[in-house]
Structures are given as C-alpha cells and as structure tokens.
Write a structure and sequence with these properties.
single chain, alpha/beta, TIM Barrel, 8-stranded parallel barrel, 9 helices
Length: about 220
C-alpha cells in the first residue's frame, strides 16, 4: 500500500471509552459513511489479544471500502491482523525497527510535537507525521498544546510528507486547521462521542476542506 496522503483528509481514531456504549464497528461504519478516509484502531487499555480481535472485526468491515486501517502503537498486532500500517509515538518502537518488522508495503506514521521531530521522522522514512496537540484535548490530558497553529504551519513548510493534525479539533476550528496547512485532520472525541457519528464526520470534513481551499 504505502500511499498515504493522496485524497486522505479525515482520519478517525477509535476510543471505546468515548463511544457511549457503541462498538468500534458501529462507530467505524458511521464514520466512513460520513466521509472518513482513514481509520486508526486505538485501544490503550486493550490487551494484545483484545486489540487483535478488534482489528479483525474492523478489517472485515472496511476491506472493500478502500479505507486504510492503522493500528496504534502495536507493530505486532498490525502484522498479525494484516492491517495497512501502524502509528507510533515518540516513546514507541523506533521507526527503523518497525520498518524492519513491517516490511516495505505497510504505512508507518509518527507523532511529532515540533519541527525537529518532524524533520527526524521524515529523514527516517515515515509515510506521514501526526502533529500533536494542536488544541487542548481531554483524550490526551498530558499533551502540551502547540502554540496555536503556528507550529503546524512551520512544519508543513519544511517537510514534504503528509502532515496530519490532531488534538482538540472540532467543527468550529477544523477550518482554521485546514487554512494553517494540514493535509489531513485526525479526530477522536468530536466524532466518536457525537450523537450522530456520520453527520459529525461529514461536518468536520466539510469545514476542513473549506479551510484548505482558503489557503490556496
């Protein structure tokens, strides 16, 4: 696969703790119906066995939809489930070892917090970077928000790989993120916790795309 970035604008991360009793499958089906282009399976409290089981369920749902499935943190689960890739944080397995395990065909995304980390991720060979945290967010209470949108814009100007913005992005600020230079937005609570997941995804993507057009 390894073609992250082309026509990928809305990246949805699962979180069973925020889904109000709905399964990951229900959330993903509705999110894709609303325009989600990428799905990340995120289960910080899952055992490896549980995460693998969820990965198989989501793979079955999206296999014919052309939507990549990315596994958060766990390279072993990405391989075992034959998912499309993995997303790694700064404290996770280093890129070169993850790439050795995953082979050349799977996507690897890296979370970055500043330009230095962004340039390092690009040099290592990352397929995309996730710039975090754009705004304050309850899903990552320890994350220190970036200084507005300036760092996002700075990173975008200095890297050639796709830039995914994450952290506190909602319908009322998605347009600003698009205008600041992001290629894609990653969303958790604003979609996963929404009463109408499909509509929330649709509106977020719509606002982000308006912002992208405004920066041209």
């Amino acid at each position: 696969m390894r073609n992250f970035g082309k026509n990928l604008y809305l990246y949805i991360l699962t979180d069973s703790g925020l889904s109000k009793g709905r399964s990951n499958e229900e959330i993903v089906i509705a999110a894709i119906a609303g325009g989600a282009d990428v799905i990340q399976l995120r289960g910080k409290d899952y055992t490896g066995r549980q995460l693998l089981s969820e990965a198989f369920k989501l793979k079955a749902i999206i296999k014919d939809k052309g939507v990549p499935l990315i596994i958060n943190d766990r390279v072993d689960v990405a391989i075992a489930s034959d998912s499309d890739g993995v997303h790694l944080g700064q404290d996770d397995l280093p890129y070169k070892y993850a790439r050795k395990m995953l082979g050349d065909e799977r996507i690897i995304g890296i979370t970055v917090h500043n330009l230095k980390e962004a340039l390092e991720a690009q040099e290592d060979g990352a397929d995309y970077i996730g710039v975090s945290s754009i705004f304050p967010t309850a899903t990552k209470p320890d994350a220190i928000p970036l200084e507005g949108l300036e760092i996002l814009t700075e990173i975008k100007k200095n890297v050639s790989i796709p830039v995914v913005a994450i952290g506190g992005i909602k319908e009322d600020n998605a347009r600003l993120v698009g205008r600041a230079g992001a290629d894609c937005i990653a969303i958790i609570s604003a979609v996963v916790s929404a009463p109408d997941v499909k509509e929330a995804a649709r509106k977020l993507k719509e606002q982000f795309m308006i912002g992208r057009k405004e920066r041209r």
